[in-house]
Prior knowledge:
- This protein is α/β, with parallel strands linked by helices.
- Helix content is 49%, strand content 8%.
- Strands 6, 7, 10, 11, 12, 13, 14, 15, 16, 17 and 18 form an 11-stranded mixed beta sheet that branches.
- α31 packs parallel to α32 and α53 crosses α54 (1677-1709).
- The chain is elongated, with a radius of gyration of 49 Å.
- The model is unreliable at 1-349, 429-435, 787-791, 1040-1048, 1219-1226 and 1448-1466 (pLDDT under 50).
Amino acid sequence: MEASNDNIAGGGGESETKCETDKKDSLEESTADTKTDPMNDEAQHSETKDTTTGEETKSASTESKDKTVGEVKHSVEIKGNVLTEQGGAEHSEKTDGNIRSEAEIKVSSETEKKDEKQMEASNDNIAGGGGESETKCETDKKDLLEESTADTKPDPMNDEAQHSETKDTTTGEETKSASTESKDKTVGEVKHSVEIKGNVLTEQGGAEHSEKTDDNIRREAEKKVSSETEEEDEKQMEASNDNIAGGGGESETKCEIDKKDPLEESTADTTPDPMKDEAQNSETKDTTTGEQTKSASTESKDKTVVNKTENPAESKCNILNEPGSAEHSEKTDDNTGGKSDIRSNPSKTGDKEKDESNIKKYKREAEMLLSRLHLQEQEKLSPSDFLKIGPHVKQGNEISEKDLADTFLQKLMILDYRARYIPERQDGSDVKDSQSVLVSESDDNDLDALFSTTVDVDQSKLTNVHPMDVQMAVFHCSDSFLKQNMITKLSQCQYALPFLVPNPETATIECPLWTFRKIIKTWKTTQIKDVSNVITMKSMPICNAQTHMVSFFRLGSLSESKSQLMNSLINDRHNTFFHRNCPGSTKSRHLMDGVAEIAWYCPAGKPSDSFTDCIAFCNLHGDALMIEKQTKILTETSSVNVVLVPTLEKSHRNTTVISDLYKSQKPLIILIADNDCDAVQMKPGKYKMGLKDRSQSNVSKKLKGIIGKILSGLQTSFQLKSMANVSGIRVDEDDPVCRKGEKAAMEIFNLIQGMNISKIKDTFLPCQGQLWHQWARIKKELYHLKGNAEEEKSQKNQQQRKIREDQCSVSCSELMKSFTESLISLSSQEIEYFLKWTQILIDALCTDNLSSILQSYDEKWSEVLVLKKKHPNSQKLERKQDELETISKKLQSATFGLEHIFREMGQIYEAHQALKKQPNSGQTNWSKYPKLAADLMISGHPMELMDGDAGHVPLTWISSVLEEVIKKLGDQRVFVLSVLGVQSSGKSTMLNAMFGLQFAVSAGRCTKGAFMQLVKVSEEIQKDFRFDYVLVVDTEGLRALELAGKSTLHHDNTLATFVVGLGNMTLINIFGENPTEMQDVLQIVVQAFMRMKKVKLSPSCVFIHQNVTDIAAAEKNMDGKRHLQEKLDQMAQLAAKEEVCDVKCFSDIIAFDVQQDVKYFAQLWEGSPPMAPPNPGYSESVQELKRMILTKASQSAGITLSHFKSKIQDLWNTLMNEQFVFSFKNTLEIAVYRKLEVQYGNWTWDLRSRMLTIENQLYTRIENGKLDNVDRTYLFNEMRKTYEKIQKDMTSHFEDNRDKDMLVQWRGRFEIKIKGFHEDQVTEVKRKLEEVIQQKKACKKLDDKKPEFENKLLQKSKELAQQLKDKAKDEEELQKQFNSVWTNWVSELTEDIKPIKDINLKEDEMSILQELGIEWSLIDESNSSRRYKNVSKVGNYCNSYVTHKIKQGFKAVMGYARQKVVGTQQNILPHEEQEMIRTFINNIYQQSLDAIKTKPVATRGYSSTYLQEVAKNVQEKVTEFESERNYSFKKEFIVDVLLYVFERLESWLSDSHQTFKKNNDALTYLNNNKPQYSNVFRSFCKGNSSAVVFGEMICDKLKVSTVETVCNKTAIDLAGEMRCTIPAFNGNRLDLEKHVLKSLAEKEDFDDFINYIRHPREQVEAFIKEEIEKYIFREHSGKAQNILKKNVDDISQLVRQALFEATTKVKTQGGDIEMWVKEYSSFLKDELPLDTICCQNFSDINNFDFLKEEIEKGLVNIIEEMNHLSLDKMKEFRLRPDQILIDQLCECCWVTCPFCAAVCTNTLEDHSPEDHSVPFHRSGAIKGWHYRHTDIMSVDFCTTNVVSDRSFYPETNSEYTIPFKQYRKAGPRFANWRITPDESKLKYWTWFVCRFEKDLEDHYGHKFKGKGEIPSEWKTHTKEEAIKSLDEM
């Protein structure tokens, strides 16, 4: 009994014997499917003590009413959910002592003895809460009982008699359990009910209480126990007491575990009866009076029991002074008021010596734990113990106790959240025997041992260390920096963090605030504003976050797991709080009770969020009744308190606490275990809810709702850092060392606090800003000298020296002084604190700014993406892109951290070192800076190697730092590991996890530049390596957010080349599975190393694909590896051609094995951030990679630090010395893209030609009056087959192509383009056809009159023919007669109709010009000289058109400059300005044409107001243009521009007016039909029958429509044929360009060249027309005629078919001529446009076969005539082959290079985000570039200029120049051009400059002289060579 009592005292676990298990199994099985009786279990009672009076209660099973003794019914209070698991807290009822005594008298002595024996055994177990044990006899009895009731309807009273008795821990009174018998039996049947003391679901170590027994009872019990048992009990008691004293967990034997499983399974599907378990009650001790309760199954009313008392047993203290695990040891004498959380408080009446012995006992306990974990003897653990490369983290089931702490930390550092679930091996036991079973040490024959509730085995051997004990032990044994790292990692693993921790040494409560300082949480809050949700992103150090806090406590022993419930609120997929069902959980837990843990719920801004704002959840472990201090702190700081109680009744001992909480202002939620009531609001802010019969998800859902509701009405109250002000707790930041570090950091922080973040660097760190950037730039220029080199070099050295002087003069900023003095004066530990504090404070300052900037960047980026889709070329998009660029710069300047302060130190050092300056008085000694940096580098801080902002390596500083490192460590060997990767691809996270490094990983604060960090190789594995350290070089993310947008890739490429050159091995980190994003970088790296002849490098590389979804797919990965290998080999071969190297494959340049060197990583997060924990698969991948790197590294000797130092210098100088700038595009990619462009051309052609055919059909239908509306859906349906085929072709091209990995980057864009093209075609055709419909409607008036005209004219012709029958043979006479009457007929028919006049555009133009106030002489001069025709091609506008403005004060201020600009050079306008004038003229013309085309000329006719509008607009535009210039235009300019525009509008206006006249003028219509009526008249004269005349009429109409149809069809067919066969037309845009240039060279016409340079599209259109003329009329005229003939045949076939169908139908149905015409027209409605056929005068026709024959005769003649039709005829009709091909080939990019006017050769019109590019540029002279203020032409190619160090003026009036290398910064015209450096000149353009030297000089008014002289080599190039060189394009 002592043993098990001790077990309870410390809250020992429940133990049950096997027999009880079996019984429960059968009980639950039998009742599983039966209907349970509400009263069935009422009789299972246990006694509870009255907490006020101390009186004792008994539970009794009473008999029915007709018996002599009255029935006693006890109402049983349910103290736990019916659903609670075994061990749930049931309560005992109180009975009157009389009843108890009566019951006892009736028990026979024999039974009494048995009972007493059994009672002692079970009492032993129970007293300690040790779990419930039952004897075999009781088990058997219960089995029978339960079996018999299994399928019957149970008696309500059936189980009422099952009672259990427990000992009162205060008074020592004892209870007995007895089963009462019915009255007519002499001996009662005895049933012992064992009380289950703790829900299986309660946390192991859950709160059971130790009860104190009186020595008298103990003595009595001892008498009945044999001496052997006594010894065993004592042994066990010590063991379990030890366990408990430290808060030992519950221990369960195997049998209990078995029991629980089936029980739970059996009840799983049944509906529990509310009363079923009512009788299962447990006794608890009254904490006030100390009286005890008994549980008894009483036999009769008149039995009495003597109360026995026992001396109070002592409860033990945890030496760590943290209340023991989830079970509590209670104070012996409750009157002492002792508190369980602070064990050292002496009891008021108690014995201090006993307390001291308890403390010793607890210390022994904790020491034992630390000893087991091998933590007891060593010093505090520090980060340096883990910042080294040691043996691999142990995996699997092989972890022994001594390695637990180490493995836990290692796993935690690599973000493996399974660190909390490390499987432990028992030392000395067979590892394989995982299912080992305990072996009892008692005598085989000992029946007592069999029936004993305890088992004789050494349990201490078997209890694994509780995972949370490992965590807390490591926490207590770590120094503050490792604690901080540890807590930061726990936070990243989404685990709860220790928030209030009882101190092991001083027994005070500590808040480890310092450990939280590095945690930054990001979340998105959702607020409802005006019906919509506003989502705000917040990111801040969690210490500063103002959040609500919800605290959870439990009062007393509970069946529910509080931690598990909390997890369901925060993240139901992850165990944020450890609970009893987590893997590895054990019963003994020593260090967690009294610890409060905290976790934050961070919403993602999604509808599925549990809460809309960040909330802190706090979990107090242990029974809050025992842990008053922490409870008080938490209840005061929380926004909401949630209390879990076993029951809610006034008599319960938790009443005081609950009533206090209920009365307080704080919202309160009470969760009651034994109640099934729904959530109820008792009063505002006070809720209660039952847990009984409720699923956890249901409880969780309700709770979320209540908490959310409460918090929505509360102000934010909790801030972590405010804990420093809470009394009664100690904050770890109060350590003197920490305070000293903080004080020093605050000095710096106070300087910058309140400042605009973006100004801090400029104000306090001036050396690294503009000054350093300028110095770096001049340094690079030293490698690119030009002109007089020595003089220039001397000048640049002077400039650099001047910058260094400026740096020295500004280097004494307060911030730097304070920072460096702190580094010099503080101790190493203080420095560590100081740096951490500085970074923490800076982060806190920047985070808000950064998160708001990042959010606005995010929003702006989304807007840009939307605009790119909807309005790709809009100004709005450009504006948004500029705004994005601005935000990007803002982001850059708002980024401020320690690295910038160290960078400043480097610059101060470099400046002073360069000038050999001594420090000023009051200034820190700069010569100590490298030593300070070296110390930090050795202690594990990253050091900046390359400044990301300046793109430069501060060589002097880096060399000095490395020299200091060498002085301290010796010239150690290092293995250099470089890492490359696109930004945010997880590089830094991976490195930090792999080596425990400290690279910054927060989004928006990505590493900038390159950083190096030393990692020591630990002694354990030193023997396997030939180097001492790994030096990790981490790079800024390539194409980083900050550098995105319009800047070049130059930065990326230099950086990539630099770090790959430095590394012994480079990790190339790719996010996702597609390596396309890294290809450019790789190509550059490959080529760069081929060029680095001086630097002998042999690096190796490893590819890491992060975020791969299925890393198990080996075949897929193999395929990926193969593709990568092919790609790399291709790159190497391409680079080899460039460099003329003998390289066959990639591994010839870089050591690479595709099988070994490509790794796939799982994604980092397991779910969606911000609440997702890291994926354990990621940690495994990291370890695997680390293993592989070390294996490879072990084969390398590395390099010495001194070698590394010189390697940096060599490599950097090589990079700067190299003339090549690393910004070319991947050649392989260009080739693939070109092929894709050809395919794109084919796809668009298929769509276009199909759409032309549809358009033709519908056009005919409209003309025939059969269609008056065009439906988009119809058009899409007609196009469906073609579009689907193209989609299949595209899929095939992108998926089956060998270059598919490269093509994938364009797939989305091209699919969108094709879809857009398809939609555009449909829209355009719909628009055209609707115009035709509109025209048709506009002509309705005339169309309605046509039948009337036709009837009358036929009638008149017939009548006239009757009169002139006799002259039928005299053709001339007949014609003369017809002509004489025709005019009269027409006049008669049109006498009421006003004729439409012709227009005189020239006359209108002249009068408009005069109206504008222009002198006639100017107009006449321009007209007569035809000068205006060339106004857009003038070489120099100064001579004829421009006068300079002279501003006031210009002379006085500018002096010399005025003379230079206005005086001597006033006849020269800069070339750029001339170019702008030309562009302006062309823009005006285009705008005017667009405006005119919107006028309804074709439907309503011409009006002179249209031209007046144009003239007015032109005049306004000219005035506007002038206003922005320092010159103005003469009147001649306005005249010439207006005449130029008018002339180019004339043709369109004339054509449109003619169309209008043709469609609407009756006179025109009649005169056009005169030949037709003349024929009819002659036919009538000859006496032909109506059928013959009608047949001739039909043939006349057929002839007209057939010609039109044949020409339109032939135009489409010829265009298709030529597109396939003419080489210029069947490739991409670049192929077309080559042919145009060949054609120009062959003709050698300067004017054509100038037109091509000025108006490339115009020239290309002219070329297309020429080629078509040549093809159709000269080179392939036969083929063209064949196409025509085929179409003629098709049409004749169709007409014959129509004749046959119409005739047959009329004959069959006996129809007349009208029916015949209707059928005939209907058949041809889609094929031929037919004019109105009038039948009124031919009603006498009835022989339709004859009619058919007549028409067929006429058809033969028509076809004969058509076969000899000139192809020129096509020009008269709607569709023309040249226009079709121009539409197809010229819908591409026409943007010209701002330097040389070369046309972008991209086939896509809008190819954003791809830059404009052209394979070969030209000499600037071609576009008229010259040196400012001279007449010297510039002959340089722009591809040369971009590698030179020269500059240019972006605009004519620019006051500043832009370096050619940074040409993109010159404005929008330049920003989107990719001009790659290229040494080879295209001979074509050098030949052109030489051939047309004189023409160019005359045209532009500049000379090829001086600096602009044509190189002599150019003059050797011939025309043949020029044309041949085009093939290089």
